[in-house]
Amino acid sequence: MRIPTGWLKEFVDVSSKTTQSIADALSMSGTEVNSIMFPWEYIHGAVSGKIVEINDHPHSEELRTTRVDVGDTALQIVTSDLTVREGETVAVIPSGGSYEDLDIRDRDIRGVNSEGMYLSLEELRLEEDSTRVFRFDGEVEPGLDAKEQLGFDEAVIEVELTPNRGDCLSIKGIARELAAFYGTRLRVPDVPQIDEEERSVGVKIEDKACYRYTALLLESVEVGPSPLWMRKRLVEAGLRPRNNVIDITNYVMLETGHPVHAFDFGRFRSNSILVRTARENETLQLLDKRQVSLEEGDLLITDGTEPVALAGVMGGLKSGIYEDTSSILLEVAVFDPVTIRRTSRRLGIKTDSSYRFERGVDASDSVYVIERLADLMIKHAGAKVASKIEDAGHFEEAEPIHLRKWYVDSVLGTVVPIKKIPQILDALGFELEERGDGWQVKSPPYRHDIEQEIDLVEEVGRVFGYDRVAAKPPRILPIAADLPEEVLKTRRTRRFLTALGYDEAANYSFISPDSIPGLDQGEELVQLKNPISIDMSLMRPYVFAGLLGVASYNYRRQNKDIRVFEVGRTFTGKEELHLAMLATGRENPSDFSDKRETTFYTFKGAVEAFLDFFGASPEFVQYELPWLEKSCAAAIHVEGNNIGFLGTFDKDFAEHSYDIKTGELFIAEIRLDDLSVNRRSDIGKVSFSPFPRIFRDLSFIVPSDIYYEDLERSIRECAPEVLAEVTVTDVYRGKGIPDGHKSITFTLVFESFTGTLKDEEVSRVVEDVVSCVEKLGARLRDS
Amino acid sequence: MESAKLAFKVGRKSAKIEQVNGGVPVSIGMTDLDVQNIIDQIKQVSDINELQELKARFLGRQGALTTAMKKIREVSPDRRKDLGKTLNLYKQSIEDALDEQRRKLLEEQRKRREAFRRYDITMPGASREIGALHIISQVQEEVQEIFLSMGFELAVGPEMETAYYNFEALNTPEWHPSRDMHDTFYLSNGMLLRTHTSPVQIRVMEERKPPLAIFSPGRCYRKDTPDATHLPMFYQIEALYVDKNVSVAHLKGTLEVLAKRLFGQDREIRLRPSYFPFTEPSFEVYVSCGICHSSGCRSCGGTGWLEILGAGMVHPNVFRSVGYDPGEWSGFALGMGLERTIMLKYDLEDIRELMRNDRRFIKAFRGVVL
Ligand SMILES: [Zn+2]
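The joint structure predicted for all components is written out below.
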């Protein structure tokens, strides 16, 4: 909301304060200040000028050549306003000044030099289309700063109000805050008693969502422009001036915080007001020409026959104010905030009126507000009072709240001087009565946010000032709680994978449904009902989906050696903690001596190292997933559970959807919920043989379709306990190896706990191993 | 073989000792000893191993000199003394020659080694790249560490929440305008995405009796279209302390620790009254600008203070909703957005950079905290 400081100063004496200090005062007492602005800062160098001479333009009948006294000199200015007269005072931007982005310079206008421009009301943004230049009302000495003379140099403070402070949505409300802060009084414009007429416009409230409805009929209204000072303030407040009737209703709303309405009473079908809930299938065309379908629960203002306004939201088009309007019915009403909010939200119509009603308006001063309206209508729209003030409904005073002095101190953590408390609350409009250990406090009718004692403590605190509360360390006792498993696992995972050379990524929890192929089988997918876009409409069932985007993004920027991971939650029927890894390109890009590309084996090695770090002994099982290449896909089994997968991401999909044309993308996803936080704690006592180990290398030529796993199992099964370890030291295909075969070299490590092994013993075991392995179709390779 | 050329012969020439001076051949019995020749040979050796071999041949147990020494007994006693002296002299000369040649060879070896630079020490090392943690994780752990050190306990909760935990239990009824502060994502399973980590407060308080001090980090969601200062997903860390007689002073004390450890020991904090439905009073918390120290400069927009988080005293209605007696217990809560902290600490202008995962961006932050 924008607060014009000139207007504000009518309500509170802050003449000795700078705009900045007013802004700081508001800010530190709870009203956030967004900016300090000057609505006419787009005009530079404007001065007052007196027209001293008018001549015809030598080449145009549509122009006049004028001389204007601007103090120290007289300028020649060409104008298209043929109504200018000698002696009139105008606003001029002489050459050297500027208007918006335009630098004003001497200009040739059809053969005549023009040394500046006259400002019109259109250029001052107070009128739609101006044909005439602006004239000052009275005498103004030439050569003075025009903006200053007009008050157009006044600052406007833009504030952002929290939803609890409906009472601050007005000049009066903000002034009240400042008065309390500075310890001065609020000044409210006096309204002369209006002479009510006998005539009564019946007002009937049928629904309790209307708390109070006050109305007054005015006649012989002349619709026309509103006074300049009013238009200026509306513009400062960010509203567009329309006509006197509408401008006055807006003006009073900004001033008092009451949304008010003016109906064209001549367009009513019946001559009374009935406030009721909408009926099924009822419709209404609103002032913005929108046709809305109403539901029961929407509150309507009707003329007794048909709806004329959607209560608290917007008036109807038919009974709006037009040029020929002459009798108007003024409405000052108070509605239930929730009812207004429901209707406004459902229809997606948010107005200055609904905004204020949702936050609660003052139900106590309806009569004052309608008198203020009437007074301005009489003065500026020629209106005459044509009825008595109708006032239906009521308002309830708040129940007093007991405020304990010690409670104030105990919440704020400081001792507030005892006199300060009633002083602050009184200035904010609360009524206090000393009682026991504190006060009985009655809230003013505009403070709908005050419900209990703590709300009063906050009022005291914010005006007293939190800078006056000294910091104290809290006395938190040590706790024995462990960190949650999720946190421990996440931390260990991050440490390990960065040590492995993987960078960590962070991706949104929502993904595009198209980011992974074949994502529908048996997954309990969770969609966003109101996503920002389709690309962010599915809660991720896997974390790797985001990593594909990361790979694509970096690939397109020529970063083709990628090793990246993310650890985070997935969302299906439940939330799980997953690790996803992705690798492509060089295995070790910053090592010039290591030219290896990432392969399934290097990637699997990283996955195995990770699982080993968590003490898991995985089994890798041939697997099929729609997003993995069939030839390279494995499920990861740990203790019988399928805890994830790894493999090569679908190459066609990588190319079409992620623009990754070269290289293989290896991905893995592991459900961390299935791993233990720490390595197995049941390793027991660590022991190893004191006797020397014996190493033997064995190379076999094996058919390519034999799984390594079977070979290893076979070796282990036929070797006695002295076989301590089996590892692969080489895999080779090529020269010397028949097609469809490969050579695998195993290193066997023998060890005994009872003595030094003899060569013959080991040789015997090796012979057994060879014959076992050969049964599988392998053949010992001649060395 | 090299040894065939040796002028050292035993048993071919008759023993003939004419002089005791070095360089003159000596004959003892059947043994000739041509010292000059031996020394010349030593001087011609170019391999350090060969030198070793020569040494054995001349001075070893079966060596010529040793043999000659043994034969000294065969010489007439009157010449024995002189001959012994001579042989010792010869032995000394050979040893000296060996030593000298050895030094010479070692020196040559060193010169050769030095002339050939096997390693170019200016070459980059064949490096093992260490991965970089995302800056969000680093700052999250940094903040976690601060709260843990103050005695807060870490708690986590679901990101898919119910309206009850996200709003109602936090004193935010369905039709209250404060819901406008949270543009919420709703899910097909009837849940919503939490708009703050505050639901964890409720879940913990429902389970436990006070006093308690917890904090909860995690992802939160609000329906904001991404721009330079907004993301539809953000990371929050929220802390809650419930005890007897907790006051705004304790909140300030905690915030001071947080601000000083996170932003620097010279920083100050300031509370500005604000509004959150679940705290009363509520605050926006500011930290003094690190550049101008609260006197106002361009980087803080002239105000001297930078907004870092929201906080407040737990609203009695929140205590009521979890069955705590607000007459007995009081507490404070504070919640900070990690992205905002990162933007302030690392001068990040576009928050979306955090979600782009450009390798260069991630790498740039390697090791800033962890
Ligand atoms: Zn600064």
